[in-house]
Amino acid sequence: MVRILDKCSTVKVTESCVKKMMTALIEKEIGGKIMAKRTDIKKILIIGSGPIVIGQAAEFDYAGTQACLALKEEGYEVVLVNSNPATIMTDTAIADKVYMEPLTLEYVAKILRYERPDAIVPGIGGQTGLNLAMQLEKKGVLKECGVELLGTNSNSIERAEDRELFKELCQSIGEPVIPSQITYHLEEACAAAKEIGYPVVLRPAFTLGGTGGGFAYNEEELIEIGTNAFKLSPVHQVLVEKSVKGYKEIEFEVMRDASDHAITICGMENIDPVGVHTGDSIVVAPIMTLSEHDLKMLNDSAIKIIRELKIEGGCNVQFALHPDSSEYYLIEVNPRVSRSSALASKASGYPIARVTAKIAVGMMLEEIAVANTTAAFEPQLDYVVAKFPRFPFDKFTQATNKLGTQMKATGEVMSIGSTLEECILKSVRSLEIGVDHLYMPKFDSMTNEEIIAYISDFRDDTIYAVAQLLRNGVSVEKIYEVTTITPFFLEAIRRITSFEKVVQENRSIDALRIAKAMGFSDSYIAKLWEVSELEVFEMRKQEGIFPVYKMVDTCHTGAYIPYFYSTYGMNNDSIVSEKKKVIVLGAGPIRIGQGVEFDYSTVHAVSTIRKAGYEAIIINNNPETVSTDYTTADKLYFEPLTAEDVMNIIELEKPEGVIASLGGQTAINLAEPLMKRGVKIIGTDCDAIERAENRDTFEKILKELHIPQPQGKAVTKIEDGVCAAEEIGYPVLVRPSFVLGGRAMQLVANEKQLRQYLKTAVEIDEERPVLVDKYISGKEVEVDAICDGNNVFVAGIMELVERTGVHSGDSISVYPPFSISDKVKGTILQYARKLGLGLGIIGLYNIQFIVDQSENVYIIEVNPRSSRTVPFLSKATGYSLADIATEVILGKNLKEQGIFDIYPDEKKRWYVKVPVFSFNKIRGLDAYLSPEMKSTGEAIGYDDRRERAMYKALQASGMKLQNYGTVFVTIADKDKEEALPLIRRFYNLGFNIQATGGTAKFLKENGIRTHVLAKIGDGSDEIPQAIRQGHLAYIINTSDIGSDNTTSDGYEIRKLATENNVNIFTALDTVSALLEVLEETTLCISTIDA
Predict the structure, then answer these.
(1) How far is residue 417 CA from its own chain's centroid?
(2) Which tens digit of pLDDT belongs to each residue from 401-449?
(3) Rounded to whole angstroms, how far apart are CA atoms 469 and 887?
(4) How many degrees, rounded to 5, is the angle at CA 450 between CA 446 and CA 455?
(5) pLDDT tens digits, residue range 1023-1034?
(6) CA–CA separation, 992 vs 1010, rounded Å?
(7) Which of 391, 517, 622, 802 has its CA 20 to 30 A from that of 360?
(8) Rounded Cα–Cα distance for residues 650 and 657 (Å)
(9) For residues 937 and 919, is the Cβ–Cβ distance under 8 A?
(10) Contact indicator for 997, 1012 with CB cutoff of 8 Å
């Protein structure tokens, strides 16, 4: 104390002076380790990750939700900005204030100036949130508003994100990095590749999911990939790097606080070698194939790098390790919560995002409570975890399924088990790709040579091909030579394929017991034994062969953590309570057609069930979601969503009932097999589902209710399909029955196209009918409704911008409706009521309507479950539909909930939902909008004026809106008259018009000055050049029905547009909506006397 006063003696000694010096001295005395929760901060802004795209999915909804709740728990006011309506994170209960505005510098700066938060946490919203926080700092907005960046500072972020700075940092601490050079244009990139030596990998700076990157084996390939890579990098910076393809890829999730206390949360190993993006790789934990020396070496390196970077919070470090030596390279460091953080959190039970948020406000690991210990513990896994990616190639059959450094998976599943074999097989059946084992029929007809050639490139189904080769007797050594998959993993697959023969030849209880312990499903054992799945189940039941449920406990302190996985032959950890229980079935992996929107509904249901006094149990297998956070429900079972796996849990828990109507098509498809096993399905039951989804019964009900639908037929033979189309009249809409996201749905214009579709696009037989419907052109309208058995509630009617023929999930949706009459609304509400009661719905259902020019209303389809639009409509109308529906399912009718009218007053504000696509991630994918859904996510815009709401929604979707430049037009003959006034409006706004020959001739004849570009099909390079040069603001391209010819000019134009990030429109209705926005926001020119 004396020393401090001595220092102050020459100045006036104030209390604050003493305090400051006290703190400085104490910090010095204890090595700078004094830190405490910040009390000078009251309000914190969190930036979300925006709409779901490939490379940035629901894991950031989970992280953001955790972070917001963690900061509120510590007493801070939390302001959230995120433009994704589908998430739990953007519920008003999660943060104190929620802004669902576009994630651009302009909007976030406005929010900062208005809200004046004390600080921002930048590392929660993925790459989007991080980039935006860095922009705000660089532009001086944070300084202007007096806002501090919490957690990892901007200097550290930049050193981790900027390739050159990262390389310098690693070299300064003696950590090896892959030889590389930073380049700013194509010539530099070519020179760098020559110096480093081919093969090289290109990595554009500041892009997410590896967008625009790839391997180049020669200069020609480098030029092709490099052109796009420079365009996609916002700073026009591309790293040219030595290829370490074939090395092992190892990841560590590490955590550090401001006192320099650093821990390892989880080590993970990719089964796929370096060369496949980690988001597309099969990943296992803990690390299994490294020597103790190599494991310690890489772990020490990860801790060393996080300390040198002064990361505060969670961080992901990726390494490439030589398969035959201890040579390694640091691949990259993510100084933020990442996709791997969500996986590591669920694999270890350690809440990374929650701890990161608390570290950001100055808390130490020792101060943060986790389970019944603190965040300073290092998780110890006594089980095995496997993550399998979920790819969209079942929907995008035209696109190549080859994998590389650019991520292509839309989602993932995780499984937990006692052995690697058990985990692999549980993951495979969680994916919902039509397989229940490491076996794909497609490889039966291929020779070993053909399969080996097929897997010389990595593909989405490599592991199934490998299993087939092992079945066929090909050696592990040979497969390693081709794939460089570590023999340890190949041996695990070989053990599975070898045991298949044992099971096939021994119909014994012992063989069954071992097969179950290895992870074999009842359905696959049934195939091997040529009996039904139920017979295998009954045999197990008789012999008492059931799994036990082990607790995911990595802190080993004796705490009861309600997070379980199944395995065989151990003690059961799951304590079955006396309370009444309700099980909610989750929605499984995120895929196109079934996104995070369904997780939103299940999480709401769980919270309502708990409030109603029941024990809420959730079953799901998606590590990215809020529903699989073990604090969400009373109990979490991390299991495959198959009838067998769900039934095992039901046998143990004996619930009052199971809710199957909230987890999308995944859960609905389980309703019937569970009911056949004696399970009570509460809410919409199997009979109601059958009435809605079986074509014949649905048509009968519509006739009884006097509700019209387009003329159509369900057919089971190709010739019947052709006859039906003749009778109905072309064009017809064809699709398989019981589908999700319009999979394999197509408009066909003639018999040739129909035969082609029935032969190639779908499997058609008695079990799998195909629907052939008359195509009616008209407005598409959609409602989400709730029925309690006596009354119906429709929270809102949504009108789609695009007419029928574009999947509703790919259309722009507007609430309240903007062009339908009150008479039509009345008809829609009348039909919604009749259908809810007539089908016997209890809970949520979704109906899609067509309104033709004469105001006739037709039914397209009824989905007897929660739908993709529930979160959007809930947030737009203020009615939490999933909660209301869950109350109804639990027996509380609408009137008891205070809902007396079928349709409440429409909001005075406009709400617009715009689809978001990931076309530039999957090469060869056609961007033409059709009845088959292609979008991966959605964004919202809202305002008092419709055009402004539309403008904000389009901006939020990532579209670069320009009110100047060139519009390139190529229009099908059938659309020319309709397109003319639209193109004239672009011309009047001051746009330059370019077109192909036929379109240009038509436009010139109608007084629009047009520059002609020669067709690609005629050998000209004019169109590709124009697209690549970047001066095209918009491309408008329409085709004739069913002309999906991949050799056409239109296809090439669409492909070039998506690869070069140029706005492309294939529906004139979308163009019309865009023009309304541009006319509202563009200042025009005219002569003085005009």
Answers:
(1) 25
(2) 999 888 999 999 999 999 999 999 999 999 999 999 999 999 999 999 9
(3) 52
(4) 110
(5) 988 988 888 999
(6) 8
(7) 622
(8) 9
(9) no
(10) yes
